[in-house]
Amino acid sequence: MEKTCADEFPLTVDSSEKQGVVCIFGTGDFGKSLGLKMLQCGYSVVFGSRNPQVSSLLPRGAEVLCYSEAASRSDVIVLAVHREHYDFLAELADSLKGRVLIDVSNNQKMNQYPESNAEYLAQLVPGAHVVKAFNTISAWALQSGTLDASRQVFVCGNDSKAKDRVMDIARTLGLTPLDQGSLVAAKEIENYPLQLFPMWRFPFYLSSGLCVFFFVYCAIREVIYPYVTGKTDSTYRLVVSIPNRVFPITALTLLALVYLPGILAAILQLYRGTKYRRFPNWLDHWMLCRKQLGLVALGFAFLHAIYTLVIPIRYYVRWRLRNATITQALTNKDSPFSSSTAWLSDSYLALGILGFFLFLLLGITSLPSVSNMVNWREFRFVQVRTVVSQDICWISWRKHIPTTHFPTLKPSHKRTHNTIISDPVAGPQEQAAADRTLSIWLRQGPAGSKLRSLNLLMLAPPSL
Predict the structure, then answer these.
(1) pTM for the predicted model, two decimal places
(2) What is the phi-psi region of residue 2: left when phi exceeds 0, alpha when psi lies from -120 to 50, beta otherwise?
(3) Hey, is 12 helix, strand or coil?
(4) What residues pair up with 45 in beta bridges, in sequence order?
(5) Using CA atoms, how far apart are residues 260 and 278, in angstroms rounded to an integer?
(6) Which of 24, 115, 265, 314 could form a disulfide with 78 if both were Cys (CB 3.0 to 4.6 A apart)?
(7) Rounded CA gap, 363 and 295, in Å?
(8) 464: CB partners within 8 A, 6+ apart
(9) Hey, which family's this protein in (predicted)?
C-alpha cells in the first residue's frame, strides 16, 4: 500500500466530519483542554474517572464513565494522570490489551525515575501499544488554539501503526507531529519540558565572566588607582562610565567568539585530513551555542547604545561643560573651530551607528522565523558580508575616537568671588547657593556682558 507523505496531511480537519471516539483517563486541566480540542475537531470524547458522579466543568458533549466502561468505548486511550496513580491500570490490563495507550505525563524533575513513564507504563500494561505524545503541549496552548504557542508534538513508540494513529490525531488538532523513534526516546521527551535554557547557560556564564573581568579591570584603573595615588574620589564612574566601557568590549568579544569555533573546526579538519570525524565535545557544544552567543552580544550592544544616549544629561558631563563655558568667557578666549576634529567626531558617530545597525541586521537574520525565509546562499551572504562590514566600521570607530579636551579645573570648596565655584561632589543645596553667588557676580562683573548672551540654562543647578 502506498504511504502518504506527512506533508500532504492537512493541519486541521473540518469539525463536521466525524473522527471517531477517543477515551481520556483523567479529568484534570490538561485532560479537559485536550477533550475540548478534540470535540471541536469532530471527535467523540469519553472521560474515564475514579468518581464519575462528582466530575464537573467538563466540556459540553463529553461523557464521563468509570475507567472500565470508558476503556471499552474506544481503542485509543489518552492517559492524563500522574505516574503515582498508574496502579489502577493493572486491573484493566485485559481491557487495554491491543489498544493504543497515549502517555502525556511529565515528571517534577529531570531523571526522576530510572526509566521513563512511558517505559514503566509499557511494563505495567504489556498488552497495550504505548505511545509517548502531547507532553510538550500545555493546556493553555490547547485552549488558545495553538496560535500563540509551539505546535510541535514529539511522538515515540515501538508500534509503527500506533504511532501513525497518534500522529493523525495530532494533525487533526492542528499540531505538527515529529516522530522520535522507539519508546527509548521517551525519557528525553519527558525531560524536554523541564529544561531551563539548556543552550543559553554557556553564553550567560561566559558573558557574565567577561563582564565581571572587564568591570574589575576598569574599576581598578579608573577608581581604585586614582584614589590610592591622589586620594581622588571617582566612585561615581561605577554607575555609567565603566559599564558603558564594559558593554561594547563584551559585545565585540562575544561576537568574535561566535565565529572562532568555525575557524577552529576548519583547522581541526585540515589537521585530521577528513571531515567525517566527530569534533571534541567542548567544540561541538561551543558551535551549537553560537546563535545564543550572538544574541547575547546584541543585547550588550543595545545596552551600550542606551547608556550612550544618557551621557549628555549626566551631572558630571554638564558640570564639565558648564565650567569650560565659564572659563572661556572669563578669559575672553574661545576654541577655534577645527574641521579635522569635526570630521573625526562625525565619522566616529556615523561608524558607531552603522556598526550597530549591521549588528542588529545580523541578529535579526539569525532568528529562526527570518532565517527560514531565505536560502543558504542568501543567509551566508548576509552573515559573512555583514560581519566583515561591521568589523571594519567598529575597528575604524575605536581607532578614531575623538578626545574632547576640557580645561583642567580643580574643584574648590572656597566660596570667593574670583574662583570658579563648582564642585562635582557638592550637595544640591550647596551647589544651588554657589550657582546663585556666581550668577550675581557675573551680572555685576566685567565679564557679565559676555555671559549674558550665553544660554543661562547651562548655569542652572542640576535637576537630577
Answers:
(1) 0.63
(2) beta
(3) strand
(4) 22
(5) 18
(6) 24
(7) 6
(8) 313, 315
(9) Belongs to the STEAP family.
Measured in whole angstroms, how far is the alpha carbon of residue 186 from the centre of its chain? 27
pLDDT at 67: 87
Considering only CA atoms, which of 416, 418, 409, 411 is closest in space to residue 445? 418
Provide the grid cell at 121: 507504563
The residue behind cell 567598529 is 394
3-state secondary structure 163-219: HHHHHHHHHHECCEEEECCCHHHHHHHHHHHHCCCCCCHHHHHHHHHHHHHHHHHHH
Backbone phi and psi for residue 153, each to the nearest 5 degrees, phi listed first? -125, 115
Q: Assess contact for 261 and 286: CB atoms under 8 A.
A: yes
d(CA 368, CA 358) in angstroms, rounded, equals 18
Please identify which residue in the block is written with the cell numbers 523541564: 194
- Domains in the chain and their CATH numbers? 19-192 (3.40.50.720), 200-331+340-403 (no CATH)
Provide the H-helix boundaries in 332-452.
Answer: 339-366, 368-371, 376-399, 428-444, 448-451
Q: Are 283 and 260 in contact (CB under 8 A)?
A: no
Question: DSSP string covering 48-89, please?
Answer: E-S-TTT--SPPTT-EEE-HHHHHTT-SEEEE-S-GGGGGGG
Question: Contact 295/366 with Cβ under 8 angstroms?
Answer: yes
pLDDT of residue 166: 93
d(CA 249, CA 254): 9
Alpha-carbon distances, residue 309 vs 244, 300, 347 (angstroms): 10, 14, 17
> CA of 407: how far to CAs of 94, 200, 329, 356, 460, in Å?
93, 47, 12, 32, 20
Please give the pLDDT value at position 430.
Answer: 46
Tally of CB atoms within 10 A around 340? 8
Residues listed for the chain: 464
pLDDT at 95: 86
For each successive 10 residues of the chain (464 residues), what is the average pLDDT? 38 53 89 89 89 75 86 90 87 87 89 88 90 88 66 90 92 89 90 82 92 95 92 90 93 90 91 88 89 90 91 88 85 84 86 83 75 69 64 56 41 38 43 49 44 38 34
